[in-house]
Amino acid sequence: MKPVNVGICGLGTVGGGTFNVLKRNADEIARRAGREIRVSHVGMRQTKEGFDFDGCTISNDIFAVARDPDVDVVCEMIGGYDTAFELVMTAIENGKHVVTANKALIAERGNEIFAAAKAKSVMVVYEAAVAGGIPIIKAVREGFAGNKVNWLAGIINGTGNFILTEMRDKGRSFEDVLKEAQELGYAEADPTFDVEGIDACHKLTILSSIAFGTPLAFDKAYTEGISRITAQDVTYAEELGYRIKHLGISKRTDKGIELRVHPTLIPETRLLANVDGVMNAVVVHGDAVGPTLHYGAGAGAEPTASAVVADIVDVVRALELNDVQRVPPLAFHTQQTDIDILPIDQIESAYYLRLEVEDRAGVMADIARILGEQDISMEAIIQKEPQEIGGEVSVILLTRKVLESSLNQAIADIEALSSTLGKITRIRVETLKD
Fold first, then answer.
1. Residues carrying an active site annotation
2. Across residues 143-150, what is the average pLDDT?
């Protein structure tokens, strides 16, 4: 039987890992797929040493791969937006199936890409786009087919998780740990995508769409980073029995879908609270199965290549059955387009608040009055001892669930008090229980 020819565009970390796994495990992969899978064409800017290119065509033009009549599956491993989008659309136009690890591309242009693929009767698969080596896309898209997914929450950026873990374990500052993360290669020279939550939001957008059967809606998601989290906040959270994690959260509610990435206090007893370092984990809650935890490496050459190669095998299996739409790319054959993505001020959450106030009589009474006016109940209050009599004092408040718009008003009113010094730190709290 004729081998399935794979063209790899980009031979960086993920592309190189994919090339090596396909070569090293060729026999095992062929047994699983039912046909030999071989790399026949590689597109890259510069020829790289250390790869066995025997039997491969090498091109400096990645679009030559997408147009090669002998290539059956194109692996887009170049990353980015515009060029990657053009490459994928060229491959689809030329009747190629596409495998990609590009979460930004799928989150922001996936609706267009999947429509084009359907029109051409080809597959676009993207398991490696979310959480590296964890098969979370397949789990949500296929394993939860009998469930109504209620919510999902995940640590889906290893850089942010590494930073928060180091801050908790060693009492270090955000800036100090970020510098080390860059030196270790966990964070880019410009770390914005990781520490401000954009990378996690791309991944959450994809997970939410396949969980709830809605179109991809990255532009409607709320994103907040961890750059304002202090070692103080990490310590105070521990005192309250919580840990701070940078979570992506999506929930089905009566009012619409919540789609948000932000620092979050979660109880220290939750499994997700104990996922440390650069590891990723996603909890998915289905009405039939309950909560399930999916844990593993979220990045790296071969963990991510594991997901890419699994997608290639899925494509080949479908080719054998002549069935390219057995599982729709976003899980549902019919998408629900009449459900809203909620703005952040319409979500309900509990909150951690840290404020600095003058150490004088009547301050706590003023704060309590303002919270009462917005019908905000308290779960816990910690008041730290001032450094000196009459100086400033740190107050930590843990609220019960409240509409965020009500909390916004309360924060504005408390910050307007003459006794309040500076801005209030606000971190959302999730129990991840029901």
1. 203
2. 96
CB 300 within 8 A of CB 186: no
Cα 209 off chain centre by: 13
pLDDT at 391: 76
| Nearest C-alpha neighbor of 433 from the set 204, 267, 260 | 267
Is it the case that residue 404 has pLDDT exceeding 70? yes
CA distance 382 to 199: 34
Q: Is 315:99 a contact under the CB 8 Å cutoff? A: yes
Asked if 30 and 14 count as a contact pair (C-beta separation under 8 A), the reply is no
For 251, the token pair is: 């929930």
Q: In a 3-state reduction of DSSP, which class is residue 305?
A: helix
Q: What is the DSSP letter of 341?
A: B
Q: How many residues does the chain have?
A: 434
Separation between Cα atoms, residue 124 and residue 44, nearest integer Å: 21
Per-residue pLDDT tens over the stretch 203-229: 999 999 999 999 999 999 999 999 999
- The end-to-end CA distance of the chain, in Å, is 51
43 neighbors 61 (Cβ within 8 angstroms):
yes
**Can you spell out the DSSP letters for 145-161?**
TTS-EEEEEEE--HHHH
Rounded-to-integer distance, Cα 210 and Cα 423, Å = 38
- Count of Cβ atoms closer than 10 Å to residue 171 Cβ: 11
Domains of the chain: 4-133+301-321 (3.40.50.720), 136-295 (3.30.360.10), 348-429 (3.30.70.260)
Within a 10 A sphere around the Cβ of 434, how many other Cβ atoms?
Answer: 8
Cβ pair 330, 210 in contact under 8 A: yes
Phi, psi of 301 (to 5 degrees): -60, -55
Which amino acid is it at 125?
Answer: V
Contacts of residue 298, defined as CB under 8 A and 6 or more positions apart, other chains included, come to 131, 132, 133, 134, 155, 156, 157, 158, 278, 279, 280
Please check the confidence at residue 331 and state whether its pLDDT lies above 80: no
